[in-house]
């Protein structure tokens, strides 16, 4: 096993570890890991990411459900519209993106590169949210009355994001659940993990029609990520998640800069 593969499998543990500790964030690394450590094409990497993120988050959500931290009514209000958009984006939108995306004189932007550029933008936004710890104490639903229509619209937007880049979007979901549903932060994190899990599997259903998955590779990688989430849930008793998220945010920002510089230098 070469160095890139060793690093990639080690980072699979990190993905699960961060999700277990902080309730989200680790999934933003899966696509770069697949692309740069294993040489998987970006579009296929987003499909693999949906499976890994979905399976890992599902394991975490079982623990949250057992502890009765998940608000199922809010989950339904946010997730049902999200399921629709994530499925449609994987089933129709991503396959319909032209390749190359556009051509201007000698400059050509392939579809795979466009997905990576979009992904780096999302990574920068995620890093900013984690570094600043953008978790509001109160919001529009401070009166205890969830804003269901706005939650549904946000669910549509998050589903489109998940479907396009294969990341869970927890860094967007958690603040929205606090602001618009009035959930305490620990319940927002738990509810977010369940939404991410189901969103990811719904998106994967949209890919099954036109994608062959390498299960011999995917299952061991996912297994390591699941091990990581168990370790993360255990360490969450002793580690302050705010500090972890801030440090991980800087790491995500560094990875985004690396991806952007690598892609630009190809031209």
UniProtKB/TrEMBL annotation:
Cytoplasm found in the keyword field: no
Keyword Cell membrane among record annotations: yes
Pfam family, one: TauE
Top-rank taxon: Bacteria
Subcellular location: Cell membrane; Membrane
Alphabetically ordered keywords of this record: Cell membrane, Membrane, Transmembrane, Transmembrane helix
Transmembrane segments: 12-37, 74-94, 114-131, 151-179, 185-205, 217-236, 248-265
Main location: membrane
Any one annotated GO CC term: plasma membrane
Membrane topology, as annotated: Multi-pass membrane protein
Family annotation (PANTHER family): MEMBRANE TRANSPORTER PROTEIN MJ0441-RELATED, MEMBRANE TRANSPORTER PROTEIN YJNA-RELATED
Family according to the record: Belongs to the 4-toluene sulfonate uptake permease (TSUP) (TC 2.A.102) family.
Protein name (Swiss-Prot/TrEMBL): Probable membrane transporter protein
Protein species of origin: Fibrisoma limi BUZ 3
